[in-house]
Design goal:
25 strands; hydrolase; 5-stranded antiparallel β-sheet; 460 residues; binds calcium ion; metal-binding; Collagenase (Catalytic Domain); extracellular matrix; alpha+beta; binds zinc ion; single chain; signal; Hemopexin; 24% strand; elongated; Muramoyl-pentapeptide Carboxypeptidase, domain 1; 6-stranded mixed β-sheet
Length: 460
């Protein structure tokens, strides 16, 4: 009847009230739960739609059965010592340090442990993070360290007071100036590095993760799992997830180190290709490959190992054999090089060739030795330059599609070699027609590869 029901409710409330309040506080603190305010509050506690939903969220995070009820497993998990930071907020990826060397400093030490021991333990904790990132950690005695480490009781004036023994063990601030990166430990915990109490090493590794910008992980094997999860003498190491998370901040977002291009990469395209006396030279980034008819092996070398005065990442290049001059192009400039030395007064502006001011760079050049003619490719247009008269030929520019039917534009690189003209066009994946290897006509003996983005044209 009514009375039994009332009794059940009363018992229910009595049984769960203290831990309900604790649990509500837990969800407020770590899952952003906002109980309804004012008069409604008492009634709202059990009926609130928000509560079971938040509880389920917490259960899901910890890999518990998502009952939405305060079952035993859930209560046990909530009573565990844990980190003071929220599990619900994902930190922005922008919260990371720009410096590669970070400094840390101890404001004080916990009462029961020797400072020298603490320093040794924390050094080892930083090492775990340093091993998987480009970061270095240095201890400072002076005040201006990036990461200030302190042990405090209860309210320590940062809006997140500690709670005495148990509960919240420590918290940390995300990377940033001032309090950013700082790590606070609850001084009232039983900190140890032996068998009893909380292992300060485990908690330090966790909090240092936050100080680097890593958020909580629901992987129970991760050190970034929010609850204290270690048996004494556990071997503490970063999990796959921890490493992935921190590398997302400090490794993947970095500019990758420059790759040395691979001449067998089928997607390889060239910046420029030119003749160089009996050789053909292919340029890519800081590198070049030199091919000589007498040698099968094609070596890759730095452009600067041969020509010190010219830039890398060239646009185009050709050799004017009548004057033994190499001409290199990059942006609106060109360089003339004789006997490996840049001639005086260079670089000069490409407008010298007679380009109108709208032409800001050239894509590729083709020099025909026997005709003393140089072809320039710019976007969809091509130009002819008379090397003897030193002027653009009449009637140019023309459309590449008119003058060179079938050659897609824009063009990456081109070279006229003996009777052949090789044109390299951006390997834009869908151009199967480019599989004709220019190099096949040049140097047949395998193993030989120099990309596949080259086409062979016979000029005649
Ligand atoms: Ca505490
Ligand atoms: Ca700081
Ligand atoms: Ca080019
Ligand atoms: Zn934490
Ligand atoms: Zn604090």
């Amino acid at each position: 009847g009514v009375w039994t029901k009332a009794l059940v409710i009363i018992l229910h409330v009595l049984m769960f009230s203290p831990c309900f309040l604790h649990c509500q506080g837990y969800l407020e603190k770590f899952y952003g739960f906002k109980p309804q305010a004012g008069r409604q509050k008492r009634v709202a506690e059990f009926d609130s739609e928000g509560f079971p939903a938040k509880l389920k969220e917490m259960q899901q995070f910890f890999g518990l059965a998502e009952s939405g009820e305060l079952d035993q497993q859930t209560l046990t998990t909530m009573r565990k010592g844990r980190c003071g930071l929220s599990d619900a907020e994902q930190f922005g990826e922008t919260m990371r340090w720009r410096n590669r060397t970070l400094t840390y400093r101890f404001s004080n030490y916990p009462p029961k442990m020797k400072p020298s021991q603490i320093r040794r333990v924390f050094k080892a904790a930083w090492r775990l993070w340093a091993q998987v990132t480009p970061l270095k950690f240095r201890r400072r005695a002076r005040r201006d360290a990036d990461i200030e480490i302190s042990f405090s009781n209860k309210d320590h004036e940062d809006g997140a007071p500690f709670d005495g023994k148990g509960g919240v063990l420590a918290h940390a601030f995300l990377p940033g100036p001032g309090i950013g990166g700082d790590v606070h430990f609850d001084a009232e915990e039983d900190w140890t590095s032996n068998t009893t109490g909380y292992d300060i090493f485990a908690v330090a590794v966790h909090e240092f993760g936050h100080a680097l910008g890593v958020s909580h992980s629901s992987d129970p094997g991760a050190v970034m799992y929010p609850a204290y999860n270690f048996a004494p003498h556990d071997e503490i190491q970063l999990s796959f997830q921890d490493v992935k998370d921190v590398q997302e901040l400090y490794v993947l977002l970095e500019k990758p180190p420059p790759r040395t291009p691979d001449k067998c990469d089928p997607d390889l395209s060239f910046d420029a290709v030119t003749e160089l006396q009996q050789e053909v030279v292919f340029f890519k980034d800081r590198f070049m490959w030199r091919t000589h008819t007498d040698f099968n092996e094609i070596g890759i070398t730095l452009i600067r190992s041969l020509w010190t005065g010219i830039p890398t990442h060239l646009d185009a290049a050709y050799e004017d054999l009548t004057s033994y001059t190499m001409v290199f192009f990059k942006g609106k400039f060109y360089w003339e090089v004789k006997h490996l030395e840049v001639k005086d007064g260079y670089p000069k502006n490409i407008s010298d060739f007679g380009f109108p001011s709208r032409i800001k760079s050239v894509d590729a050049t083709l020099h025909f030795r026997e005709y003393h003619v140089t072809v320039f490719f710019t976007g969809r247009e091509c130009w002819r330059y008379d090397e003897e008269k030193q002027q653009m030929m009449d009637g140019y520019p023309k459309l590449i599609s008119d003058e060179w039917p079938g050659v897609p534009s824009p063009i990456d690189a081109s070279v006229a070699y003996k009777v052949m003209t090789g044109i390299s066009v951006q390997s834009n994946r869908n151009t199967a027609q480019m599989l004709t290897m220019f190099t096949a006509g040049l140097h047949p003996p395998p193993p030989f590869c120099l990309g596949q983005g080259l086409m062979l044209y016979v000029y005649g």
